[in-house]
């Protein structure tokens, strides 16, 4: 696993076997893509038999769904924490971009799967994840709107700006590697400065 | 094919059969990912036999390499045209972001393949594409540096800013669909405004 954040995603309440399978699935999907990965590949990577895998997950799609739901929930949580961290839109946005960027750099392997394999999710899981994505986007939009109302941001098209903010963060997962020159934290700080300028932040 | 730009990518000098195979490969890679696509899938989608495919391309990797090289060459061309279009860095950057964004919205299917399947390229093709990617990034960086020198931009970290500019454009391919509310051209104009602000453009 090249990805420190992965282990953090599935905390203690899961069985050790389930966590091993999730990690193995992340590794396999990242290497071959979802479609070319078999449940046997995942079981082997986790040091289990396919039969042992099925005790925990009925299919590779169920593993993808769990990875995608927990990944999206975790980014929604940090976005909502950023909003709750201050009453000041500039501070909320700074925190949001710092944390959202850091998450996608640190967890770039999971981030890539979560964002590129959406179309492979079973319908019901897709709907659940789409709902989480909308809540993330709406939180970003709410902070922008509040900042504009308070005269702290100056934004010609709020929906396009919100899209650009989330897009910049999400795309970090595509290009970031452990060989990148900036740490996830440093990249988060730099991106926050760029985004606040993009939003025409007074004092940003 | 949901993607108008695709046909523009391979102009007249190719045989009709080669173009049909490239289009079929784009469609198949987009649907299943590169690894899960077989040469038979591509041949069938092109209305040919696998044997007929091999007359034109020795492997699916050769098709991916051609799609990736032409896609990258086409974006490098537009980036260089933007640089040549003016002597004024603000105008160069405005044009660059408008065209780069438009390309990735219009050609989102090809853009997604070209950016997500890099790791699947044969070594030599990967090196050629990596070289094109560096030239794109260096052009963006050169315009930023020239703008800073001329007092037209104010940028704390030029390399991070250049990365953010290309990242915003590339990620359009991930999220843009024909159902998006903005046309590729309108999105390009809006993104150019956001990027010029990000670069602290005087009069941007």
Automatic annotation (TrEMBL), chains A, B:
Record flagged with keyword Zinc? no
Please give the superkingdom of this protein's source.
Bacteria
Species assigned in the record: Kitasatospora cinereorecta
KW DNA-binding (keyword) present: yes
Tell me the ranges covered by the HTH tetR-type domain, including all copies: 15-75
Check the record and name the SUPFAM superfamilies matching this protein. Answer: Homeodomain-like, Tetracyclin repressor-like, C-terminal domain
This chain's protein is named: TetR/AcrR family transcriptional regulator
Q: What positions does the DNA-binding region cover?
A: 38-57
Q: Which PANTHER family match?
A: HTH-TYPE TRANSCRIPTIONAL REGULATOR RUTR, HTH-TYPE TRANSCRIPTIONAL REPRESSOR BDCR
- Which keywords has UniProt assigned to this entry? DNA-binding
